[in-house]
Amino acid sequence: MTEKIRIIGGKQLKGEVSVSGAKNAVLKLMAAALLAKSETKLYNVPELTDVIIMLNVLEQLGAKVQYNKIEKSIVINAENLTGVRASYELVSRMRASFVVLGALVGRCKEAVVALPGGCAIGERKVDFHIKGLETLGTTVKIENGYVHAKAKKLIGGDIYLDIPSVGATENIMLAAVLAEGATRIQNAAQEPEIVDLANFLNAMGADVNGAGTSEILINGVKQSDLHGVEYTTIPDRIEAGTYATAFIATKGKGIIKNIFPGHLTFYTSKLTKMGADIKLLDPTSIEVSCKKRLEAVNIITQPYPGFPTDLQSMAMALATVANGVSIITESLYENRFMQVPELRKMGADIHQERNHALIKGVKSLTSANLRASDLRAGASLVIAALMANGESIIDNIYHIDRGYELLEQKFRMIGADIVRFNDDEPDVVNQNKGNLSESKL
Asked: pTM for the full model?
C-alpha cells in the first residue's frame, strides 16, 4: 500500500499551530535511558515512525517500553538489558538509532551496533564516533556492517572533533557519563538537542557541563549514581521553521506555539531579511506573516548556531518565487539538494553546481507530481505545493512521516487543502488519518 499526499495550492494559511516534541532530541533521550537501571518517563514525544523504530531498538536490547499515544509519553525501563546487539534491520532505517552505541558501551562496556542508515543526503562517516570511544579505552572494529565495541573499563580523556558532529558528540557524551575521571570534548556540537541531552543526563545523576558551547566536560559517575527520571522533550525547531515558512510562502498569517524562539534565530533573521514579519508574542510563541513578494537572499548552511541544514530546502522553496537571484551553499552534506529536480518540475529556475544553487525567482510555481527523496526535501515539496497553482501529488511520503507529526491534520487546521490517500484507492481519502496507523503503536 502506497500512501501519497494531495495538495491544492494557492490558499493563504491562517490560524494557530502547535509544535511537537523534537525528533532529534527525543530519540537521543530514549537511547540515554539505557544508562539507568530504573524507569524513565519522557513527555512531549511526537508520534513518528522514527520514534517507533527506536522503541523497537530498545526492546531488542531487553528494555521494557510503553508508548502512550494520548499522553504523548514513553515509559522506558532498562533495569534488565538482555543484549548489546542493535540489528541492521532497525539501525539501517534510521541513523539516530546509532547513538545506542555510546549508551551500551557506557552501561555494558560492550556493543554490537549496525552501521547507520537514514536519509541519503550524503556521506556521514562514523570515524569521529569510533575515535572518541577509542580515546575512552574502547576497542572498536567493523565487521560485516556492524561496529563491535568492547572495553574492560572506560577512562576519561581529551577528545577533539575535526568537525562538530552532533552524533559523535552524543555518542561520546553517553559513553563518558560512566567513565572513570573527566572527559573533555573540544569542538563539540552546540545544537539545542545536545543541551537537552545534557540536561536529561544531569537529571539522571550525571555530571555534564558546557553543553551548548564548543567544549563539553563530563565528570564520570558511578552506575549507582544514575536513576530514572521524568523529563519533557524540547520543541522541534525544524518543525517550527517549517510552519513559519509555510505561512510566509502562502502570504498568510499565523501563530506558532510551543517553540523556543531562540533556537531559530538564524533562520528567522533570514526570513525577516526576505521580507517576512516575525513577532515574539511570549517566550514560547511567535506570530509570522508576509504581505508582499519576498526578496532574494544568500544562505550558507553551517553547524548551530549558524543556518540549519535541515531548513535549507524550505528556504530554497521560498527563494523560487522571490524577487531576484538567491544563492544557497550547502556546506555540510553533498547530497542535500535532492529537492532541486522536483522544484524544477514546478517551474522553478534553479542552476546547481556541486554544493551551490543559484535560484532565480519566478512569479509563481505550477502544480506537479512530485517524489520526496528524503525527510527535509519532502517537507520543502509540501511548501512548494502549498504555493503552487493547482493540484500536486507527493509520493514517498514515508520520508516525511519520519519527522512531522500529524502533518496533514496540522496544515488543514490552518487552512491548507491537503489530504493523504492510498494509491490503491485514489478516490478514497481519509480526512482524519494520522501519520502512523494504530497497528504501529
From this structure: 0.93
Query: Closest Cα to residue 22, out of 96, 100, 108?
Result: 96
Summarised one tens digit per residue, pLDDT across range 321-365 is 999 999 999 998 777 899 999 999 999 999 999 999 999 999 999
Write down all domains in the chain, each with its CATH number in brackets.
Answer: 3-15+267-275+292-440 (3.65.10.10), 23-232 (3.65.10.10)
Number of alpha carbons in the 13 Å side-chain half-sphere of residue 360:
3
Nine-digit cell at 431? 480526512
DSSP per residue over 131-199, as a string? HHHHHTT-EEEEETTEEEEE-S--B--EEE-SS--HHHHHHHHHHHTTSBSEEEEET----HHHHHHHH
C-alpha angle with apex 192: 404 to 406, nearest 5 degrees?
Answer: 10
Whole-angstrom distance, CA of residue 349 vs CA of residue 58 = 45
Q: What is the CA radius of gyration of the chain?
A: 22
d(CA 379, CA 121): 14
Rounded-to-integer distance, Cα 86 and Cα 96, Å = 12
User: Three cell numbers at 281?
Assistant: 508574542
Enzyme catalytic residues: 119
**152: CB partners within 8 A, 6+ apart:** 109, 137
